Amino acid sequence: MHEISLCESTIEIIQKQVQQHGVKRVTGVWLEVGALSCVEESSLRFCFDVVCRGTVAEGSQLHIIHKPAQAWCWDCSSEVEITQHEAQCPKCQGFSLRVDSGDALQIKELEVE
Ligand SMILES: [Zn+2]
Ligand SMILES: [Zn+2]
User: Fold this and answer.
1) Nearest to 62 by CA among 79, 45, 81, 78
2) pLDDT tens-digit series, residues 91-108
């Protein structure tokens, strides 16, 4: 399970942001999760609550935004979106895909007090 380390780095980024802006409390976090990140939503939520305890983000609401991955298809030379590993090209059904992104976690927005 890697969700806990992902959440730990997320809370580190949040704490840095909060210090820079003199925020007292974080009430909501929007997290963009790449479709290929192998992150399970329920354990991500659980880990997030755990790492937030005792921080400015304790009790904050986690909003998860699922982001499709970008891939390049060598067969039909087009940029396509995929939502799983070992995917087929949605245009030509080919398997010659080069995945460009989609395994990352990124904070999109913070709601603060
Ligand atoms: Zn995992
Ligand atoms: Zn294709």
Assistant:
1) 45
2) 999 999 999 888 888 999
User: Which ligand gives the minimal distance to the CA of 76?
Assistant: 2
Q: Which ligand is nearest to the CA of 95?
A: 2
Q: 101 C-alpha vs ligand 2 centroid, how far in Å?
A: 17
Amino acid found at 37: S
Confidence of residue 111 (pLDDT cuts 50, 70, 90): very high
Are the C-beta atoms of residues 81 and 70 closer than 8 Å to each other? Answer: yes
> Distance between CA atoms of 99 and 36, rounded to whole angstroms?
10
C-alpha distance from residue 49 to each of 25, 44, 46, 86, 106 (Å): 15, 9, 5, 32, 17
| Residues surrounding ion ligand 1 at CB below 5 Å | 1-2
Instruction: Report in angstroms the alpha-carbon separations of 101 from 32, 46, 95, 113.
Output: 13, 25, 17, 33
**71 — pLDDT class (breaks 50, 70, 90):** very high
d(CA 45, CA 70): 25
